[in-house]
Amino acid sequence: MSKETDAIKRIMDGLGCSEAEAREVYAYDCAVDKARASDTLAHDLTAAQQKVAAKMTRTGTRKMKETGLNLKPRERKPNELKGSIIAAFASFLAENAEISAENVEITNKERMIAFMCGGERFELTLTQKRKPKT
């Protein structure tokens, strides 16, 4: 089989059309492949259609004013349990004489404590695991 008959058979199978329609599609495909930008073909878009197509296919980022959407980040609810645990750890580090932690500061009230001990800097990060799915 030749390249043309293979392509026509593939078009017939893919589009579910007759052999005559498949030959027409194949001929148009060949014309498109050989055409230059200045050539006009039978199924080309008019200037008005080209303008609409260009407008509809624009992508990229748009400013918030253009879209009309009000996208603000969701405000997080405070996790009071984590806050109290961090505060308890911070007070333990500051008051415990055996560890002798210095410069104990809560860098994130629900997550992190930074301190110095023996001339070295340390950070404790508290992470809460999610509940297992049932």
Key terms for this structure?
134 residues, elongated, 3-stranded antiparallel sheet, alpha+beta, 44% helix, 5 helices, 3 strands
Low confidence ranges: none
Radius of gyration: 34 Å
Q: Would you report the number of β strands?
A: 3
State the end-to-end CA separation: 60 Å
The helix count comes to 5
Short recap of the structure:
The chain is an alpha+beta fold and about 130 residues long. It contains 5 helices and 3 strands; from the N terminus they run αααααβββ.
Strand-helix topology:
Layout: H1 3-15, H2 19-34, H3 47-56, H4 64-67, H5 80-95, E1 102-108, E2 112-117, E3 120-125
Antiparallel strand pairs: 1-2, 2-3
Helix pairs in contact: 1-2
Your description of this structure?
The protein is of the alpha+beta class. Among the domains are: 1-35, no CATH class; 80-125, no CATH class. It has 5 helices and 3 strands, in the order αααααβββ. It has a 3-stranded antiparallel sheet, covered by helices on one side. β2 and β3 (120-125) form a beta hairpin. α1 (3-15) crosses α2 (19-34). The longest helix has 16 residues, at 19-34. The model has no long low-confidence stretch (mean pLDDT 84).
